[in-house]
Amino acid sequence: MRGVCFTGDRELEILSFPDPTPGFGEVVLEMKASGMCGSDLKQYRRPRGVRQNNGLATPEGPTIAGHEPCGVVAAIGPGVDPRLAREGARVMVHHYQGCTTCGHCRTGWQQLCQKTSVKVYGNNAHGGHAQYMCVPANTLVPLHEALTFQAGAAISCGTGTAWGALRRMNISGNDTIAIFGQGPVGLSATQLATAMGARVIALDISPQRLQRAKEFGAAETINPSNADPVEAIRELTHGLGAELTLDTSSSPQARVQAIRSLKVWGTCCFVGEGGEVTIDVSPDMLRRQATVVASWTFSSVGQEKCAQFIVDRGIKVDDLFTETWKLDQAEEAYKLFDQQNTGKGVFLI
């Protein structure tokens, strides 16, 4: 089979690999869709010869990219519980593997495993930008018949990450939420928060992305390059600020603005990976009783709940995608995605 591998300095190669065979407890998926996520760009942009694995074990040899896999079970290895997998089943993948036995792993949070080095598929273990993918059966999440494979790919990271953050903040229909960044995760958050009844203020420096946010339900949009976002949010909230803010951008400036845009007793959530933020603790947090939380993706249980919510509310997750690609077009696809002014891309395999 062939798979897409990032080689650094915004370059990639499509390499040949043996077709995988499932071992004990494993399954092989025939890939149908593999999404492109903003966090892929960190590996795509890394300097050649440098592996940026955020403390994860460094793999030997080239690693197939893609951590938003969705497909069909093609082969089942020995020892797989038939309740977890059957041939032909439509499935998503919760793209982490820990020890499987600690409290975090057993409750669906394998990425938080404290006992072993976590595998992150598409980072330090082979991901979904290929014809086949071998994973433990315990990473599979059923894909509802009402959802397309590309919708399942979005839920497998970007949309699921937005869901996890919104649930982390206990969002309700009483809330106004300001969402900083309208890339794939931010736009998913705009979709989901609107469906949850909240009033969404969407922020981005791209006019195209702000237009999409309006189409996805944002009540108001703000371009921080044209206006002070903190003042603009206060003007839209009777001078009080938003109950909730969410930063998906990783921008240090946006993170500070997200905190300062809160009303008293408000909650800010950081989702965007990497970077730093410097805040003035007393005026920014203490004297406004602010809560600042972080949200790293979602559990396998949350992934399934997110998918069910999308089905129940008829949310058009497929509309997130502005480009569809074949694996042979990977170089063109990532050069476009790297510009970060379009929507979401997906490989249909």
TrEMBL record:
The keyword Oxidoreductase applies. Pfam families: ADH_N, ADH_zinc_N. It comes from the Bacteria. Its cofactor is Zn(2+). Keywords: Metal-binding, Oxidoreductase, Zinc. Residues 8-347 form the Enoyl reductase (ER) domain. GO terms for molecular function: oxidoreductase activity, acting on the CH-OH group of donors, NAD or NADP as acceptor; zinc ion binding. Belongs to the zinc-containing alcohol dehydrogenase family. This is Iditol 2-dehydrogenase.
